[in-house]
Prior knowledge:
The protein is of the alpha/beta class. It has 23 helices and 9 strands. Helices cover 53% and strands 7% of the residues. Strands 3, 4, 5, 6, 7, 8 and 9 form a 7-stranded mixed β-sheet that branches. The two termini are 40 Å apart. Mean pLDDT is 88; it is low at 1-19, 21-38, 345-352 and 541-546.
Amino acid sequence: MKTEPRTARPRSRRDPGKPGLRVLLALLLIWAGTGPLLARPLPDGSTPGPAFVDWKRGVQKQSDAARDARRAVEGGATADEVLELLGDPSGYVRDATFAAVARAWSDEQLLSLAPGLVSPTSLVAENVAELLGIRPLPAAAPLLERALGASGHEGARRWMLSALAALDPPSAVTRATQLLKREKRALLLRGEALLTLARHGGEDGRSAIETALSERKQLPDRLFALIALREVDPPRAFEAAMEQLTHPPRDRTGTWSARIELAALSTLAAADPTQVGRERGVAAIDLLLAGAEEATGRPRRARLEALSALTGHPLTLELLPWQSWWAARRETWEPGKGAPPEPGDGDAKRRTEVVTFHGVPVDSRRVVFLQDLSGGMARNLAGETGGEGPTRLDRAKDELGQVLGRLDDETWVNVITFASGYFAPFGEPQHLQRARRALVKFCREQRIPTQPGHARGNVYDALAFAVASPHVDTVYLVSEGAPTEGKYHDYDRFLVHFLRLNFWYGVRVHVLLVGETGGSNRAFVERLARSTGGDVHPVDGPPPTD
Length: 546
């Protein structure tokens, strides 16, 4: 298997020849919004998105270079030298340089890095924009405003707009309005623009949010507007969530409508029942129960979680007790009062059919399995190198093969494996009905890379690609935990950037932890999982209990 990743997204490979009748029919169904996507594999061994890897230096040499970078920054490095370090191929060096500048450099020194805002190197532009974002300097406002119009890097521009909003809200509002008119494909930049307008735009900003909530073509705007509104006006966000659930957008692919639904449900779950009041609370509970019967996967659980939050009762994952309880108490119910629903057996069949992955229920129909291929996976289950019994990777591949064979045909699935780079059979999740054989084959063929420097753990790049993929609401990450390659290594920086990304997507991440992991590494994976609503489970431990 080729393991050298590509940094550009490759074009999908198609079979030669004329399409048959079944293919033409499937394409017609997709166009009509009623059929699954065709499974179009990526070229063998390709990386579906950017991978930030220092291929020339091992971990120790990168650590040594990071130490030297830190000393240089603290010892009087010039702005040009620091900008070069912020674009270094090694995440260790970039993280160390960033931390040293943030800690040790004066405001004047920090401003000297401003030319990096328009650097042609995305890493340099993003790092400088982030530095100016975490330390608001009034003198930086005009520099940020000019760079917003000149930079070609979406990630950097998101930090610039956020920093400008903290320094000069009127200028940020003007820029945000312009971005919404001009930027159609930079989705997360549009999200940042809507958030800026929600926070600082006054009546005009609120009008832009309301327009976005009813957007028919640019469906991501609905999601971003709802999330932005939740930040500044929870009561209006509650009403907007009800509207989105009552009148969901027409979405041929189902990508954004599914995300909007989950965002709306989480908005209802986050509401204060005492502030909602009885009338709106009754309407919300009616709406949640009306859609729960047909809901599957994570949306079903999200509806029940919202019911629990609104009623103040412990979560019951069975629908029949909720229905019976509400039928008896709807007319007299008051927020925070009333006996909780009694557990029943109305959903017993549904519970017994839940597929598990390493003992963890797969309760989603939109899943990515993220599998570690780094060197530690070559040890056996007892943690011994060259010991008896199956390796950790053998165990993981066997488990993944079984779960792929048992999941429902209508489940959206992708499998991503990662070492220093990361790899996937498809550029986005596919209906298992069409892609099961290809996914199982991909899983079975995976090996730990043997080339020097290729078997590190690039957790960030693979995870960022997974959560931003369409048709995904849950990720199962099987890993030893510590990132040793990729865009970000430092635990705190990793989480800042990942949570900033997942703020918009709302993907739940479960971590299946391989081997004995403790200390800061364990704390890192626990923060990663729980900040998304997920959990951490030992791969070789007993199945979790509710």
